[in-house]
Amino acid sequence: MTRSKQIGNHKNDKKKNIAKLWKTKRRVKDLDQIHHDLQPENAKLLLNQEIDYQLPGNGQHYCLHCARYFVDLKTLKEHFKTKVHKRRLKQLKEEPYTQEEAERAAGMGSYIAPKLIKIETQKMDMS
């Protein structure tokens, strides 16, 4: 399929690029942002959030690796067994890209292979 070339709509005077809106509608966190969330102090805050009625499951059931909210604990546990979650774990095993690595790739240093990080599915509290 081709992308939408429609710009704007009849109801507004503003010119909105509809293709861009479609592209960013289901935007998810990047891997480096998720690596930042996996640090213990950030993970603790994300797993113990206050009740937010705007989020699925009131924001109480969150997958750190996929950055997704779930309706209940059962759905979250089922998610841990899916291909989507397992693929995300595999992607997160490689350490995030850094500025030092970019400089080495540009010829400002010798190449160092990226390190692998041990990633496991988060532990569940039964409370």
From TrEMBL:
Cross-referenced Gene3D superfamilies: Classic Zinc Finger
Q: Which domain of life is it from?
A: Eukaryota
Q: Which family does it belong to?
A: Belongs to the ZNF593/BUD20 C2H2-type zinc-finger protein family.
Q: Which UniProt keywords apply?
A: Cytoplasm, Metal-binding, Nucleus, Ribosome biogenesis, Zinc, Zinc-finger
- One Pfam family in the UniProt entry: zf-C2H2_jaz
Q: Which organism is it from?
A: Hymenochirus boettgeri (Congo dwarf clawed frog)
Instruction: Give a GO biological-process term.
Output: ribosome biogenesis
Summarize the subunit comment: Associates with pre-60S ribosomal particles.
Q: Which PROSITE patterns does the annotation name?
A: ZINC_FINGER_C2H2_1 (PS00028)
Could you state one GO cellular component term attached to this entry? cytoplasm
- Quote the function comment for this protein: Involved in pre-60S ribosomal particles maturation by promoting the nuclear export of the 60S ribosome. Negatively modulates the DNA binding activity of Oct-2 and therefore its transcriptional regulatory activity.
This chain belongs to the protein called Zinc finger protein 593
